[in-house]
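Retro notes - structure team

What went well: the batch runner handled both jobs without manual restarts.
What didn't: labels got mixed up in the shared folder, which is why I'm recording both outputs here explicitly, each with its sequence directly above its C-alpha cells.

Job 1
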Amino acid sequence: MTAERYGLMAEFETPEQLLEAVRRVRAAGYRRIDAYAPFAVEGLAEALDFREPRLPFIILLCGALSGMAAFLFQYYIAAIEFPLNVGGRPHNSWPTFTLIAFEFTVLGAALAAFAGMLAFNRLPLPYHPIFNAGNFGQASQDRFFLCVEASDPLFETQATRQFLSDLHPLSIEDVAP
C-alpha cells in the first residue's frame, strides 16, 4: 500500500453493474479488491472469489478438545490423584464425568466461535480507510462500490484509474489511508 492512497474506488448505480465490474476486474488480474453494497448481491461472493471459511472446523476442534480435556481432568482427579470410594462405585465412573465434559464442550466451542469471528474479521477495527471516500455513506442506502487496493501487485494509479473508467462508473475517487 502506498503512503498517499489506500486505493481507488468506483461507484456504480446498480448491482448488475457492480457484479460485472467485479468480474472484469478479477479477469484483469487484480486480487486485492472489495465490493460494498446496501444489500446482498447474488453471485458477488463468488465473483470476489471468497474462500471457504475455516471457522466451523476450528469451532469443532476447540469444542472436542475442551470436552476431552474436561473428561480427562475429571478422570485424573477421581481415579489417579484423589480416589474416593463413594457408594461402592469404581473410581473411573465415566457417566458422572459426561455432564461437565458436555458443558465444557459447549463452552470451548462458544469461545472459539467468538474469538474466531473477531480474528477472521480483523476486529476490533475502529477505523478503516474506506470511510475516507466521499460518497461511501451511500453504500448503506442505494449505491454500489468497488475498491481496488493500492497493495495489489498490479496497481498503478493511472492504469488502474483508466481501467476503472472503462467500466463506466458514476465516479472514481482516491481513497486516502
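Job 2
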Amino acid sequence: MKAWRNVLVCLLLIAASLVSSGCASIVSKSTYPVLIESEPAGAMVKVENKQGEILHTGTTPLTVTLKAGAGFWKGQDYSVTFSKPGYNTRVADIHRGLDGWYLGGNFFFGGLIGYLIVDPATGAMWTLRDLKVTLTPVGDRSSGESPAVKVVTLDQVPEHLRPSMVRIN
C-alpha cells in the first residue's frame, strides 16, 4: 500500500511541475547560437539589437549567442551589417519567430500558465534562425544601385545616336 502512495505522490509532483511550467521553457531555450554567413566569406559583421546597441562584431562565418526575448511578451529582432572591400554594404535582419514548443507543447503540457506567464516571461516562446547573405560586387547592376548619370555636350554624342535624341525645351 505504501508503494502505491509513493508512486501516486511522484505522479502528482510530475503533473504539478508540468502544469506549473511552460513547455517551451522546458524543451526549448531563450538564447540561441545563430550562425551568420556571407557569400563570399570574410565579410566584417556588426550585430545590433533594435535599440541600436552593438552586441557583436566579427568576420564571417561566425556564431553569436543572441537572446530571443526582450521582456515579457516581447521578442527581440536584430540588424546585421555586412561589409567587405569591393562589395556593397548590406544590412539584413534576424527576425524572431514563435517556437513550436510554445504553440503545440503548451497545449498538451504547459497549459494556460505556460502560454500566458512562464514562456512569455522567459523568452522561450521565441526562436531565432541562422542568417546567410550574398554580397554583390561594387558596380554590379543587379545590386539595385542606379547607374550614374553622365552629362555630355552634343559634340560628345556619337553621330549614329544623334537621330534618336529628343529635344527638350
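One thing worth noting from job 2: Residues 2-138 form a domain with the Immunoglobulin-like fold (CATH 2.60.40).
We'll revisit the folder naming next retro.
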